[in-house]
Every structure is written in C-alpha cells, then in structure tokens.
Amino acid sequence: MSTLAHVFEARGLATIVLASMRPVVEKMHPPRALYCEFPLGRPLGRPSDAEFQHDVLTRAFALLAAEEGPVLVDHPVVIEESAESLACAMPPRFDPSLPACVDEANGLRRAYDRALAARGVSSVGRAIDADGVPAALGALQQIADGADWKSVDLPGGNTIELVHDIRTYYEEASIQLADGPAPGGRAAEAWFYEQTEAGKTVLAARSAIREAGAAFPIWFYMAPGHR
Asked: What DSSP letter does each residue of 129-187 carry, written as one string?
C-alpha cells in the first residue's frame, strides 16, 4: 500500500495509508500514514464496533491537513491478537466412502449458506464457487495421496486462488459454528490448518507438489510461509 500511495500521489491523488506494520512504512515513507497496532486483517480495529472504526477513519482523514510530510502518526489504542484458539464444532462424518476432507466440506455447506445469507456477500469465487469446494479438495487429496499434480484436474488451475476459496469457504462457515466473538485472523488460520481435514489435505498436497519439483510460487503460497 505504501508503494501505491507514492504512485497515486505522483498522479495528484492524496492518499492515506492505514499501516499494520510499522517497519514497512518507516522504510517506504508514504506521504501520510496512520499506524494501527491491530491484528492483521482488521485495519479498522474492533469488529462490529462502529464508534471505534469511525475514530480510526477520523484520525486517518485528519492527516490530510498536515502541511508537509511524510507524516506517520500512531493510533493511541493497541489491540493485541487473541491467543485463544477458534472453538468451532465441526459436523460429524456423514459418508465414510468419501475422503475425509470432502465429507467435511459437504457437512459445512449449511453453515456456509447461513453465513452467506447473513452477510449477503462471500469472498469465495476467485477460482471456484462454494459448489466446487468438495471437488477441489478431492483433487488435492489425490495429489496428497501420490498422484502427479500435473495430471490432476485442479479446478481453476491456480493453486493459490483455489486454496484461497477453500479456506474462505471454511472460515465463513465457521462464523456460524464458532462460540464467542469473531475470531482473529491468526486464530482462524490456526483452526483451518491444524484442526480441519481440509487444512491437513492442503498442507499434504503442498508438500507433494514441492517434492515433485514444481516452481516455488505454485506450492509455497498455498499456505502461510511459516507452515
């Protein structure tokens, strides 16, 4: 975002960066930045807290009044990432003849549909829609089980976008199943990769694709780098 800010400013458009990583803005020097020490993925801070979010935006837009820059201001509130894991009751197995990840994804469909009805929008759809999630997991399971990844029909053909849609499907469904408030990004990530059959399948397929000698971007970005 800091780089884009310089590009837009060069074209005469005033910009404000809501910065989540202070070392980045200190190095990139965008014209105006509000550093918000909030959990990653929550640039406005507290979910469903309109008053707090308006405060963040008010402080950000106030930077437009600065006579010279670059300007870097800290938001006075620090929000720590919750260390609590996501508590999410998963549906029981329904069809043991299917791979566990496929059966699991089928079982989450009603929760996903409830989340879609409640929000009116979904971030699933870069490579596949919700209907395509079980088949996509089935394809990844084939790779994890030893099939040549080049011969497997991966829906959408892009491993990064495919995994994005699978993970988003799961995380949006979890909103309807989780106990307590909306989880932080790290909690949802840990739940997906550590507690779901889908997450385990993605990691196993990723390892198989890497060991098959695929180009770095094809497998690396299927999961966060520390996994």
From this structure: -GGGHHHHHHHHHHHHTT--TTTS--TTS-HHHHHHHHHHHHHHHHHHHBSSSPPPHHH
Q: Three-state SS for 17?
A: strand
Distance separating alpha carbons of residues 42 and 59, to the nearest angstrom: 16
At 60, which amino acid appears?
A
What is the bridge-based pairing of β-strands 71-74 and 32-35? parallel
Residue 123 has pLDDT above 90, yes or no: yes
* Element holding 4 (H helix, E strand): helix 2-10
Nearest to 80 by CA among 48, 36, 19, 50: 36
Residue carrying structure tokens 């408030």: 181
Reported as a single tens digit per residue, the pLDDT across 36-71 is: 988 777 888 887 789 999 999 999 999 999 888 799
Residue 45 one-letter amino acid: G
CA angle, 61 then 66 then 69, to 5° = 110
Mapped onto helix, strand or coil, the DSSP state of residue 34 is strand
DSSP string, 46-111: STT-HHHHHHHHHHHHHGGG-SSS-EEEE-S---PPP-PPP-BPPPPP--TTS-HHHHHHHHTHHH
